[in-house]
Task: structure prediction
Amino acid sequence: MNNNIVYALYDDDDILLNSVKKMKEKNLNVKEVYTPFPVHGLDKVLELKETRMAITAFIYGCVGLIFGSVLIYYIMISGEYKSWPMNIGGKPNFTFFKNLPSFVPVLFELTVMFAGHLMALTYFYRCKLFPGSQETSPDPRTTDDKFLVEIEHENFKEVEKFLKTTGAIEIKKKDDK
Amino acid sequence: MFQLNKKLYFASISMIVLGLLSLVIGFMSDAHSTWTNLLFNNYFFLGISLFAVVFVAIQYVAEAGWSTVFKRVPEAMMAFLPYAGIIMLFIVIAAVMHWNHIYHWLEPGIMDPNEPNYDKIIAGKEPYLNAPFFLIRSIVYVIIWIYCARKLRQLSIKGDLEGDIGERSFFKGLRVSGWFLVFFAVTSCMASWDWIMSIDTHWFSTLFGWYIFSEWATIGFTTILLIALFLQKTGHLPDLNDSHIHDLGKFIFAFSIVWTYMWFSQFMLIWYANIPEEVTYFMQRIEQSNYSFLFWFSMVINFVVPLIMLMSRDAKRNKTILVIVSTIILIGHWINSYLLFAPGTLFEHGHLGLLEVGVFLGFIGLFIQIVSRTLSKTSVVIKSHPYLDESKNLHT
Result:
């Protein structure tokens, strides 16, 4: 039912935030909001679920730490039948624990790298961003300095009248192709 | 108006009495270890009160709005700076007068080639480490720190009386803060070399100043949070919301990690290079049985406890968890500050005992008295400040 969608364009994030609040109060069905940058407090107004990115970051960090430990244990301590034992600065390199201080930078970097890269990939996956993906925003100006709200309506005239009072600079129906 | 309740008032007074008693007993039984005891406890509270000035100054310079509603808390903590500064100067003067023997390089004859206790390495440091310069430096640091603290406090009170948004005093405060921060950046490093690092005269570490600063920042933020939570509970800070507490929790979490980063950077390079003149510092702390437990214990609780307990967002908004973690961190850093001084002055004889705890309690009592007295002088709630509205509406 494409012809039930209306787009309202705003040019200020504060006005946008207040109008979305009013729309929610009027029980309008706000489908989506497109903004050029994260608008503070919008997630609460839209009643979005809290992001689970923090949990994934923790898990990825742990994976990186474990990967780093195994890697460094294999390279520096065990090796394949201890084929290439290395003596760096006369430090004990036969036990993982005694040599731990020198491994900490490597473990730290791998933890950060795993957390950072895997989080970025997760973000791309969740936002369905991949090479050749199409933009979902109906108006390219939302990547510049405009804010767009996508609303489902039953009576266009009524909604248009209401949106004009909230400070929208442009209101249009979605074209049905 | 804030008024300390009777229970806490008498508790703090009795803590002061306990502290003085510990000092008297200490000086009668073992004067040398008592000087160290006084020095490291004073250092701990000097750090807290000095960091309060730094915090206020950073908020001015960054024109940060979030912290305005609890601005009176660091300002009250600043009031302790003159007390800690004067005790510090007293210790420094006592050291120069040879009443105590904390600073090994102040011993007479140590820089004279004809004397039996001549030390070539220490003699090479004479241009910097000599008694008159040491004394002058210490006095200059303390006086300018106290001057800036008083100035910022006065301007803040003036801003409240100014009405409207208190803009004029704010910009004056901004200027004072800028100069203070430049001065502090240099002098906090130099003070840590003079008062702490010069105890282990042969040893030096280039990041020692930042290491000390990160410790001051951690205990400073912890104390700000604890006092703010207390005032919120007694109803004196009605505008303090969960977001402010969350932000302070973030700072405690972050600076605990910065502290560990500094600690580890210092430790790992010295451990790896394994040069005799450098490793002695850690040998004293790791190999000697009276320090080794405290050394690892303080490191673990200062890092692992905040890392695990404050990692999630909900924990930083949970007051019970925050109070528990803050208390643990304060104790951990107190142990760590003991380890900055004791191994270099007391060697194998030092042990963290009841007298140290007694003096610590004495300082806590004095701190509570001074801070509460300063808080009760003006209204705890800020009346006019350019960022007051922003701070009240903080939400993260």
Notes: The mean pLDDT of chain B is 93. The two ends of chain B are 29 Å apart (CA to CA). The interface with chain A takes residues 264, 267-268, 271-274, 311-313, 395 of chain B (CB under 8 Å).
